[in-house]
Design goal:
About 10% of the residues have low confidence. Helix 1 crosses helix 3. With 588 residues, this protein is of the alpha/beta class. It has 4 domains: 105 residues; 37 residues, no CATH class; 306 residues, Purple Acid Phosphatase, chain A, domain 2 (4-Layer Sandwich); 84 residues, Nucleic acid-binding proteins (OB fold (Dihydrolipoamide Acetyltransferase, E2P), Beta Barrel), CATH 2.40.50. It has 15 helices and 22 strands.
Length: 588
């Protein structure tokens, strides 16, 4: 049963504060009436609020929420296990969807009958071009070939009043200049993960054999298990099936014994072939003071297995964090701090394809160019309502190429190093993880998802995949209010030494296990970790690593946020950058 404190925490994760007890009581009543937990009601409210333009929670809005979404869903779906979101792939609001893999999908539930009063015709676009030969960025994103449906400006976005507002800060930002030195051009290099070379081109996927995938999964248990031995101070692991009244030490992968989300009663531990023959046993977690587990996690457990059929855990080790990079950091007081801007797609609101948020960002970059600009896909989101609804009058490739051409032209002569991270959600990208880089001409550097960048010795790990949201849907933890949830989810990546440790992946995500082990396993703990997510933006340090979630540049019908960072010389040549990073999350 969902408690008031749990409900508040679930809403706070998405940036919503329930300060009024009456609102809390109403939400708890909805949870009970429609058989859904606090996280489910929070996710569903985000979908509804974004579609209707609500920025706060009130009793009136909650009644509207219940009447227009919850009640309809209860009639449409006979057996509902959790409240479902509007699907961005569906234009009709009457279709019930059971898959909420991506919270951003919730932001696209815009009925097709809802149109803006303001229309821009192709003729008016042509007239503007003749009036101004040096077209602005926004004009380039709206050529005359676009249909009125695609080229109608967003009234919600244009009427915003918080553009440029800072919503989160990290470090001593009062002394930050946010201005790049024109005399300093930092070196930006692409690093390899655990493979010999980084992922720079496409590869064959959907040919992976189950035998090969199983071998990779088994090797992962062995690899991480050897490092956990140092923490547990043991030389060898026991078999999971060993019946003994004495305490034994085992290692394996966390699995779920049923269909659905992992919980404390459904935890299995799968051992390696060498130690346990690949067997799995249920795990009793009742004696642990705290735990945080998800499917695919490699853990070491010290406990008792008196019958050989159930392991009673007494101590659990959730992995080992790798040391920071040993490469020297070459930022000096002479060269000055490095200015970095990070933004993640989608880059346009869900009611048009004018890319107004991206246009505003590029205009700001032109006025005050940083040393490094990191743009993370998707550029043309496969789930955008106009794309999914086939409302374009040209091919996806033509649209994609035009938009990338606008980005290339806008950033061509400003002296900024531009890195573009691919995304499997892009309509013209490979639908596999790890995702090969885009193929775009010009001066833009295209990298895979995920990727490692080295900027004057500072190692930056980036991914456009929302691993935090995926982990949050599958994780089970105790006590519920025991720690910072966002920090806890992030720490899983560092302890599992992987940019995507979740296994199996959510439905709809194509993951190549062999390539993931090669191009998504971290060789070290990065200085900076960039994890864009639909979860609430944040900047925090974990184990000497500065973690940044810039959220999305566009969130449904409204503008989102991006991050800017200023990297100063560290106090030591090698080690953490925690005290040398100044960062802010800024409204577009």
């Amino acid at each position: 049963m969902t408690t008031a404190e749990q409900l508040k925490e679930d809403f706070e994760t998405y940036g919503i504060t329930l300060s009024d007890n009456k609102l809390v009581e109403k939400c708890l009543e909805l949870c009970s009436q429609y058989d859904v937990d606090g996280e489910g009601i929070a996710i569903c409210w985000m979908a509804f609020a974004s579609t209707n333009g609500y920025s706060s929670v009130s009793m009136e809005y909650l009644e509207h929420f219940e009447r227009d979404q919850l009640a309809k869903e209860k009639k449409t779906v006979k057996k509902v296990e959790s409240i479902q979101m509007y699907d961005i792939n569906t234009i009709s609001s009457s279709v019930s969807v059971r898959d909420d893999d991506d919270l951003l999908a919730a932001y696209g539930g815009t009925p097709t009958t809802k149109t803006s009063k303001r229309q821009i015709t192709p003729e008016s676009n042509v007239a503007k071009r003749h009036m101004n030969s040096a077209r602005s960025i926004s004009a380039q994103f709206s050529p005359a070939t676009l249909s009125p449906m695609v080229a109608t400006p967003s009234q919600k976005y244009s009427s915003r009043t918080n553009a440029g507002g800072v919503v989160a800060s990290y470090g001593n930002v009062s002394e930050a200049s946010w201005t790049a030195s024109n005399n300093f051009k930092p070196q930006v290099e692409l690093m390899a993960m655990t493979g010999e070379t980084p992922l720079t081109e496409s590869y064959k996927y959907m040919f992976e054999k189950l035998r090969d995938a199983a071998e990779v999964l088994n090797d992962t248990i062995t690899l991480l298990g050897d490092e956990i031995k140092e923490i547990l101070k043991v030389e060898e692991y026991s078999s999971l099936k060993s019946a003994s009244n004495e305490v034994i030490t085992v290692c394996g992968r966390i699995c779920c014994d049923s269909v659905g989300r992992l919980n404390a009663a459904s935890v299995l531990l799968e051992g390696s072939r060498e130690n346990s023959g690949g067997d799995a046993v249920p795990v009793d977690l009742s004696q642990l003071a705290e735990f945080s587990l998800f499917p695919g996690q490699i853990v070491g457990i010290r406990g008792v297995n008196t019958t050989g059929n159930k392991l009673v855990a007494q101590e659990l080790i959730p992995g080992k964090i790798l040391p920071l990079p040993d490469s020297p950091i070459t930022i000096t007081n002479t060269t000055g701090p490095i200015q970095v801007i990070v933004a993640c797609g989608p880059f346009t609101t869900t009611d048009n394809l004018l890319y107004e948020p991206l246009s505003d960002l590029l205009t700001a970059v032109q006025k005050n160019p940083p040393h490094l600009l990191i743009l993370m896909g998707p550029l043309l989101d496969i789930s955008h309502p106009l794309v999914a609804g086939n409302a374009l009058n040209e091919t996806h490739d033509a649209v994609f190429n035009r938009y990338t051409g606008v980005i290339t032209a806008a950033l061509e002569n400003i002296g900024t190093k531009v890195v573009l991270v691919s995304s499997s959600r892009d309509v013209c990208s490979h639908i596999v993880y790890p995702t090969p880089p885009y193929v775009i001409g010009g001066h833009i550097t295209c990298v895979s998802d995920p990727a490692l960048l080295e900027v004057e010795g500072v190692v930056i790990a980036v991914t456009s995949t929302d691993i935090l949201f995926h982990l949050g849907k599958e994780e089970t933890s105790f006590p519920p209010q025991g720690s910072d949830r966002l920090g806890r989810l992030t720490s899983h990546l560092l302890r599992q030494q992987s940019m995507y440790p979740l296994y199996p992946p959510p439905e709809g995500m194509c993951l190549d296990q062999d390539e993931t082990e090669t191009h998504a396993r971290l060789p070290c703990t990065p200085h900076i970790l960039i994890l864009p997510s639909d979860l609430r933006y944040f900047i925090k340090d974990l184990a000497g690593c500065v973690v940044v979630n810039p959220e999305r540049l566009a969130k449904g019908l409204v503008g989102g946020t991006y991050a800017r960072m200023e990297l100063h010389p560290p106090s030591q040549e090698k080690g953490s950058m925690v005290g040398s990073v100044r960062a802010q999350i800024v409204k577009v």
